[in-house]
Amino acid sequence: MNKDLQLREEINKRLEQVRTKKMKDPYRLAFHLTPPVGLMNDPNGLVYFKDKYHVFFQWNPFGTKHTFKAWGHFSSEDFIQWEEHPPALVPSEWYEKDGCYSGSALTHQGKLYLFYTGNVRTNNGGRESYQCLAVSEDGIHFEKQGPVIELPKGYTSDFRDPKVWREKDRWYMVVGAQTESLEGTVVLYSSLDLLKWKLEGPLAGPRISMSYKFGYMWECPDFFSLDGKDVLIYSPQGLESQQYQFQNLYQSGYIIGSWNRQTKRFEHGKFQELDYGFDFYAPQTFTDNKKRRILIAWMGMGDEQEQNHPTVQNDWLHALTIPRELRVKGGRIYQRPINELKTLRKSHFEASFNLVHEQKEIDIYTQLQEIMIEINKFDGKELSLHLQGNWKLTYFKDQGVVTFERMRFDRSEKETRKCLVETVKHIHILQDHSSVEIFLNNGEKVFTSRFYSESTCTHCLLSVDGSAALHWQNWDLDSFCF
Ligand code: FRU
Predict the structure, then answer these.
(1) pTM of the predicted protein model
(2) What CATH architecture does domain 341-477 belong to?
């Protein structure tokens, strides 16, 4: 039997095993994409093709470690009703034998093209990487075309995650890379036919547009124009953690500026993080049929805590974030949950509160919650929202700091992430069974995190140290349909 079929049979067996088990799983998510079994990491190949949104993802169906990597596949007409498909790519060929790594999708002449990295481990412990192409007529079955780009001179084999787009008469590709002097960078290619690619050189990075080293590797680059600006998103590794920045092991963020299409020079501002929570990495964007720029990220982090997520005991790990619509305003990216998610809203509660040095308890009847708080007036020191047993968000007005607290997975101790803010006027929260995404000031700053609590929380506690006039709304939310 050929390798491709053999791997697909093994994956099917694995799926059958878990589907007959029917485990009680309080942490399974209701409105986030999760792997049917095993480990999910980066979103891949986000695309609108033949009236459907396609979301591919890095998938190890055989365990919760980063060993085997295929491309899992979901599709949807509306981001709410999802269909699960057979894996789009399994690592069956010599040039991808140790993983069909991350990449992107595009549509051209009625076909769907996937560009991805073939990862190969060599006998002496090294690595080879190939940028590969696979093409599909129906969006479900893919014909592999093999490598279209080999490793260029000057870079190590940490060279991956091609993102391809079209401008005028040409295709462009950015690839995440490491230079031979171990600096993170992003490399640009161009092509007229999607098969032959010309190396244009680094697009950004220490050698080209920064005078300083910024991490040892940049993963998952994405380059696009939005609201009159050019934006490069990437995930740098090797940044030193600071009090209000780079608090996770790896980061994801962006630089904004203007790309000269003739000289290929990208003039840009400083790196800004996309998210300040514990679990956010390797985001990818695409434009849909409504011309929205939509971002989905891996809601996870490959750090030393990874195998301590309690879902590992139920044979699955990680999820993708909800889709977020991006806008650029005042030199920064704003992220907002896409409008379609409003169709998950069920019962609604709304009230205005004037609180003076007091705590207000608000009942919630399900873990699946959307909460929206408008802060019309706040004179005081601290304002916090505590979903008891789950997590706590606190705004320290004098310091201009917001903190997010959750319990560690490995021992009963709190851990915190923080970000700087000028003010907080608006808080928008989407909580699933074991994840929360918090958007401050209409998406100016975001915290994305998993949390695991033993008990289901039935109320939240709003505390004000000072006086505040707030408008509160919350909705119970529904689950996705599969
Ligand atoms: C980012 C990443 C990518 C790589 C993929 C492998 O999380 O390391 O650079 O292609 O995951 O799963």
Answers:
(1) 0.98
(2) Sandwich (2.60)
